[in-house]
Design goal:
Structural class: mainly alpha
Shape: elongated
Distance between the termini: 109 Å
Helix content: 55-70%
Strand content: under 5%
Number of strands: 0
Length: 123
């Protein structure tokens, strides 16, 4: 003999399903907002770390020895009586611009165009 489902049971199941649907969207929004808050907090901590790094880098410029070493390294400055040796390869030997022209400086490009006007290629 099949068991009958009472009206109270059906009503209770319908109410529980309605509550589940009613709470599903707000819970999803809440979880999305929590993920966004976590992402923003991580971004903020990364920015604070970057600021601290830049402040430390800025404080190094207060030291005279650091300024001197950076001038010597970046600008190739030497003190009086010292010799500077620059070791490297010269890709534009003889003053001519590189073949592709992309790596040439603007004055090398101008100079090579002036040379090509003075000495046109023979057909």
């Amino acid at each position: 003999m099949p068991r009958r489902i009472s009206a109270r049971t059906v009503t209770l199941v319908v109410v529980l399903v309605a509550l589940a649907f009613a709470y599903a969207y707000p819970v999803r929004v809440y979880l999305g907002q929590q993920a966004e808050i976590d992402r923003l907090e991580q971004s903020q901590s990364d920015q604070h770390a970057r600021i601290e790094q830049l402040i430390a880098q800025l404080k190094r410029w207060d030291d005279d020895q650091y300024v001197i070493s950076e001038a010597r390294r970046r600008l190739h400055w030497v003190r009086e009586g010292e010799l500077l040796y620059v070791v490297g390869t010269d890709s534009a030997a003889g003053g001519a611009a590189p073949a592709d022209g992309a790596d040439a400086t603007w004055f090398n490009q101008v100079w090579s165009s002036l040379q090509s006007v003075d000495d046109p290629p023979v057909p």
